[in-house]
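Continuing the series of single-chain predictions for the mutant panel. This is the parent chain; the variants come on the following pages.
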Amino acid sequence: MDERGGPGAPQVRFEGDVGRVAEEKGACVIALTSGEIVLLSDDREQRIETEIDESIESVIILEDDPLHLLIGTEGPHIYRYRAGLMERNAAFDLLECRDEWYTPYGSPPELRSFAATRDGWVYADVHVGSIMRSSDLGVSWEPATPD
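Parent structure:
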């Protein structure tokens, strides 16, 4: 509290340029433009060095204990972080429809956003490509609409 009885000045918990943010069940994951991930919860702050070279464009928390993230990048690629391990998702990289993804301005497509449903589906929006989906928390992927 400050001298007027109100909340004090905000405290800086970390420094860096924020790229993307995801929140789920009291946990907050912040992807910094440096490629580092910061996990904030009520009782802890955890920093994860991703070693991802591409620009991080999206992040989603699939589970919070143990922490399970999907990270989308320009390229586009998907990285899975689970139980302390970071890996690029080979199944997403092998999708046959990747050859059709393009942007009208010439830069590489990017994975713009993720969404998860209560019945276990995860969707990934590829700009400009399509929407991909996974029924197994991001292990395997297929086009949401095959055509």
